[in-house]
Specification:
Layout: E1 4-10, H1 16-28, E2 32-38, H2 40-49, H3 54-58, E3 63-66, E4 83-89, H4 91-98, H5 105-115, E5 119-124, H6 131-142, E6 146-147, H7 161-175
Parallel strand pairs: 1-2, 1-4, 2-3, 4-5, 5-6
């Protein structure tokens, strides 16, 4: 069976637990190989928001890259991947991706996804959004990114933060064609 290579980028936006949950789900998925990039801001946010350490995130990935390693395999379109998930995606990272400002590996890998017409899913974490944010998101959608803000579905009647996180992660994995049962799917009564 063909292994799906998924790049996971975790930026410094609030919500690093989304990235951790995505890595756990991808680790549990069949025939998936994860390639992880943590930004310096993500490392700081992990320490501020969780009881976890960046090493806990890295332990869930098959391959880990430094964000300053622009010679990494995921920086090239000749390295075939199935897609990329940036979870959470800060507006700083979204802006850099939208303008192809490839100063970091996370942004370069996302830019490669777009230029190679591979799936790029951005779990953008910012609220409220001003017009500049909206124009950045519009630009990203125009050039092929999937914009997937972490908005919970109340029809699933979440009972915990974990339920809300699992819903977003499940929706993101759906966009990458990774089968999952992380959330309650809608069904007509």
């Amino acid at each position: 069976m063909l292994v799906k290579k998924i790049v996971v980028g975790i930026s410094g936006a609030s919500g690093s637990i989304y990235g951790y949950a995505a890595l756990r789900a991808l680790r549990a998925a069949d025939d998936v190989e994860t390639h992880l990039v943590l930004t310096a801001s993500a490392r700081r946010t992990i320490a501020l928001e969780t009881q976890l350490d960046p090493a806990d995130f890295e332990a869930l990935a098959d391959v880990v890259y430094r964000d300053d390693d622009l010679a990494a395999s995921i920086a090239s379109g000749s390295f075939i991947i199935h897609g990329m998930l940036v979870i959470p995606c800060s507006m700083k990272s979204a802006s850099a991706i939208a303008s192809s400002y490839d100063g970091t590996l996370l942004v370069r890998a996302a830019d490669v996804c777009l230029k190679e017409r591979r799936r790029l899913v951005l779990v953008v974490r910012e609220t409220p959004l001003h017009l500049g944010h909206l124009r950045t998101l519009e630009r990203l959608a125009e050039i092929g990114a999937v914009i997937l803000p972490p908005i919970p579905a109340m029809y699933a009647r979440p009972k915990s933060v974990d339920d809300i996180v699992a819903h977003t992660v499940g929706k993101a994995l759906d966009q990458l064609s990774i089968p999952n049962e992380l959330f309650v799917r809608w069904h007509s009564p």
